[in-house]
Amino acid sequence: MDLDAILPEVGEFGAYQQLLLYLVLLPCVLPCGFHAYNQLFMAARPDHWCRVPHLDALDPKVAKNISIPLILREGEYIHSQCHMYERNYSDLLDPLGSSGGLDANLTTSPCQYGWNFDYSRYAATVVTEWEMVCHRDFLATLALVLLGVGGLIGNYIFGYLQDTLGRRPSFFIYLFIECFFGIATAFAQDLVTWTTFRIGVGFPVPAILGTPYVLAIEVVGPSKRTLVTILTNIAYSLGLVALAGVVYLVRDWRQLALATSVPFLSFFLYWWVLPESPRWLLARGRFDEAEKILRKMARVNGKPLPANYMLQLKKKYQAERYVQQKDVEKEKTRQYGVMDLFRTPNLRRKTLIITFIWFTNTSVYVGLSYYAPVLGGDEFLNFFLAGAVELPTYIVLWPAMECVGRRWTLCVSMVIGGVACLATIFVQNGQ
């Protein structure tokens, strides 16, 4: 709708856009990272071993030595997490019992009375509360998969919602869903309920990141879109760094669910300051609403809105609608679908390349982020580094995209990332 032609005149990146970006849109990126990754620590799996009720009164180290066999792992002997010795522990503790001594030929069995957990790093997690270990250890991973599946489904639904209702109301719908289920998570009393609430949290996660990003690039001029894209990614990385601090301070999973959800209720105050995208309004023919936003933008930026500009836009819009209606009449029997992306060789090649790039980058990025806490060493420091390590990249990425272009920047960065991933096979046994 030729909005790009007017933005340089009212300010491509003036005071209005800067205030909106730094005070509203960039903070709106934070809920995505917080809710996408807080589950890693809610479902953290601390060290555990079989519980033997008869030995509860003993020192844990003594009890482990008596009841838990040693296994060899990565060249080091450690206590088994899922097996225990089969022996008469009541008789063992009785000084007059017939088998008071240790037997080197003991047999082992899976845990029979539940588990003991090491609470030195976490006060409580869903794993410790519902004993999601050993033969049940897949449940934490399944819950994480379902969180992602929820986001995948939500992407399709909320993409249409954003185009139909607009950017502004859509964001607050996503925010409500995410905060509601995020807070509800803290009150789940069983695993099924908790997993259901986590699916609800994951449902709007990708959309709540995309909405402020789309709105940001739609209110700035063409020359500033790379800048806005970089700033949005920086805000997301800073969100992960901030989350690392929160999970370090809050070690109980219920309190963590509240600490990563309740603060975002304050974002509903943005209802009075977050504007609708003028580009979306113009595309919908809502000229009066778009004009109010553009006039406010021009006023805050200290620039006048060109005379009769809205009248010209209306005429152009009506002409385009007339052409579109003729095209619809001409092709009313033509149905478009996913297969149209593969209809011509050129479109087919680009579709396959871009799909591969998105799949590769997303799977590797999310996979490494999820795996970072258990790479070895301090899991809180690992997650902090996983978020912070992105920040220096933007110092290079920003000028590279402007000077070299998107294609070569993408190609070189993917090669560097791929080589780095392959290089890890040489250091598998070290932090």
Topology, element by element:
Blueprint: H1 3-10, H2 15-25, H3 30-42, E1 48-50, H4 60-67, E2 70-73, E3 76-79, E4 83-85, H5 89-93, E5 108-110, E6 115-117, H6 126-130, H7 138-165, H8 167-185, H9 191-202, H10 205-219, H11 225-249, H12 253-259, H13 278-283, H14 287-301, H15 309-330, H16 345-371, H17 379-388, H18 393-403, H19 406-423
Antiparallel strand pairs: 1-6, 2-3, 4-5
Helix pairs in contact: 2-10, 3-10, 3-11, 7-8, 7-9, 7-10, 8-9, 8-10, 10-11, 11-17, 11-18
Describe it for me?
The structure is a single chain. By secondary structure, this protein is mainly α. Among the domains are: 3-44 and 138-325, MFS general substrate transporter like domains (Growth Hormone, Chain: A), CATH 1.20.1250.20; 48-96 and 103-117, no CATH class. It has helices at residues 3-10, 15-25, 30-42, 60-67, 89-93, 126-130, 138-165, 167-185, 191-202, 205-219, 225-249, 253-259, 278-283, 287-301, 309-330, 345-371, 379-388, 393-403, 406-423, and strands spanning 48-50, 70-73, 76-79, 83-85, 108-110, 115-117. The strands form three sheets. The protein has a two-stranded antiparallel sheet with strand order 1-6. Helix 10 (205-219) runs antiparallel to helix 11 (225-249). The radius of gyration is 28 Å and the shape is elongated. The two termini are 54 Å apart. InterPro entries: MFS_dom (IPR020846), MFS_sugar_transport-like (IPR005828), MFS_trans_sf (IPR036259). It comes from Laodelphax striatellus (Small brown planthopper). Residues 89-431 form the Major facilitator superfamily (MFS) profile domain. Its main location: membrane.
